[in-house]
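Forum: Protein Structure Q&A
Topic: Joint prediction for protein chains with partners

I've read a bunch of threads here and the consensus seems to be that you should model interacting components together rather than docking separate models afterwards. I'd like to see that in practice. Below is the full input, 278 residues plus whatever partners are listed. Could one of the regulars post the assembled result?
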Amino acid sequence: MPELPEVETIKRDLEKLLVRKVIGRIEISDPAILTGISAKVKSRRNITVQQFKEKIVGKQIHKFNRRGKYLIMEFSDGSSLIFHLRMTGQLIVQSTSGNERAIFFMNSGQTLSFVDRRRFGEIFYSADWKKEPAINLLGVEPLNGKMTADFLKESFSNRTASVHSLLLNQKIVCGIGNIYANEALFQADIRPQRMAQKVSLAELKKLVSSIQDVLKQSILHRGYSMSTYVDAMGKKGRNQLFTVVYGKEGLPCSSCGKSLLRKVIAGRSAVYCSNCQK
DNA sequence: ACCTAAACCTGGGCGC
DNA sequence: TGCGCCCAGGTTTAGG
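Posted by a regular:
Agreed with the consensus. Here's the joint model:
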């Protein structure tokens, strides 16, 4: 579920609520949250619940960071907990859900709960998040000026995959997921199935500003909450009221009125207007 | 190296 | 109501 705007919203909420607080106790009801679901990742991260608790309990939260869709809780000794919410993960302060996979009890009395219906989400410990391979594999951030049209042109050169697929590739630009890939391509009048290397520099310029626009708008609206996403207070965002193509197959195009089409591209649903997008 | 399909897991929604 | 199928905001892995 959560893409850059949703993770950014949670990050800002947690900054306000939990900086300087100390973790007093941790309950892990689903240990898979520490190791990941897939077998390969499991073998890489062999940590027991007990070892995990020993690393974290007693530490003071210094700040929160975000890289792509990763949320990083950094402690005052420089170590960190790195969270990824995957499809249905939620991080909620004072949650009453009852479906928590992990709960962090602060000495202040506050709780931070990781709730996650599909159990894809993960938490892992890092002595130094800036040296973490998972973080360093990420491409540029879309909102810090590094995602230029020239950069995309270079990144897309000789690539036969669709522009939609490459926007979802976190090693090129990080933080964009299927909602914002679809919305940005619509706003830039580019069909998602276009071969990436054939998108012109002029079109990429439009795409860069479209990506930034849809992400910033969603941050202002506190994220897209059609399904499970909620902020750190457990409240829904409002961006689902402003999106125009994602999840709207068969509805009329907001620009020309023609029925929106859906096409599965490299395993992901793309929705687009065959009249407006070229 | 690059590309796609399948897998991971759970549950909502829809058609019959 | 119930069953079976399709779908899902993400990433990893297997196989071409």
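Residues 36-39, 87-88, 117-120, 158-161, 165, 227, 266-267 of chain A lie near DNA strand B (CB under 10 Å from a C1').
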